[in-house]
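Table S2 (continued). Query chain:
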Amino acid sequence: MVIRNAHTRDYFLPAQGRILEEFVDNETILSGTLESLGNQFGLTPEDLRICLCELVQAGWLHVEAHAFGPLTIRLDLGTDTSTLGPVAPDSSSNSA
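Corresponding output:
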């Protein structure tokens, strides 16, 4: 994956933190399009997609895509959170 605007870990980690903060209450569920959710977090739809992909790969979130664009995002409660590691950017997404 190539990041068009060459954002770095310094950009995505705080954004991922803002996303995870929404889930302080385990019952929180976010729903919307990439554009509407991106606006909520101050991200472009592409940057939100990158953040969500990394959070899903790290085992923190579960994302469901629905017909015509909406997403549903929730904590991945099926994972033992004591074994989760830090979110690490996908090495293939880093470009200089």
